[in-house]
Amino acid sequence: MSDQLKPIIEALVFASPEPLTIKTLFKLLEDEPQEDVEAALAAVQEDYDRPGGLQLVKVAGGFQIVTRPELHEWVRRLFHERSTQKLTVQSLETLAVVAYRQPVTAPEVSEIRGVNTSGVLSTLIERRLIKVVGRKKVIGRPFLYATTQEFLIRFGLSDLKDLPNVEDMAEAFGLEIAESLAGTSTAEDEQFPVQELGDAPRQQESVEGVAQAKESTFDDKSSIN
Question: Are 28 and 116 in a shared domain?
Fold first, then answer.
């Protein structure tokens, strides 16, 4: 394995605006044997497993270098003067319903929460945390909503199977979760008759003037694990 391979991989992961997948690393380092790339990545991981201010984590199917959770209070002080758009409690509660019940319609979300949530869903789409994935084949053919890759990145999840128990998440964020969600540990795999929308989700998410994803919910390069 080349002596330069490990620092190259570290630099690529750090510089990438999104989690860097092993497939992308193979492509970027196509002249290097794949087993050497994997070994170098493992060596980088070993370095970041030692005590320090940063850690290498796997989120949304890729790798990212982020600050350690126990140091977030100090990092937030650095950005104290920065104007950020935080999610409201209502938005977080609605996001939790979508995450644990997806794919789910707006009427179903409203029924679970007990209030109209159409405006909140629009906000979550603007923040690129949820998207439209189809239409439910029932009267009225309402849109079906699901979480996005950006959701996985923001919450430090590799995939939806990593979602914590809903009660634990509610306690962590100080949320009031509907009784119908109690006991849920991961997003359910209910099978709905769905009409796919093709490029519609992309169009739904393309909202001019929306703050960049890294400025919408949490500070840049910070994990919330």
Answer: no
Q: Look at residue 49 and tell me if it is in a domain.
A: yes
Q: What does pTM read for this prediction?
A: 0.53
The alpha carbon dihedral of 12, 17, 19, 23 has a sign of negative
Domain C-terminal end among 78, 103, 119: 78
* pLDDT tens per residue, range 157-179: 888 888 887 777 767 666 666 55
Q: How far from 156 is each of 19, 67, 87, 107, 143, CA to CA, in Å?
A: 10, 12, 16, 29, 27
Q: Are residues 102 and 201 in the same domain?
A: yes
Whether the per-residue pLDDT at 184 is higher than 70: the answer is no
CB neighbours of 56 closer than 8 A, spacing ≥ 6? Answer: 13, 44, 45, 48, 49, 63, 64, 65
The string of pLDDT tens digits covering residues 39-91 is: 999 999 999 998 899 999 988 889 999 888 888 888 877 765 444 557 788 88
Half-sphere exposure of residue 148: CA atoms within 13 angstroms, side-chain side: 16
Tokens of 158: 């590799």
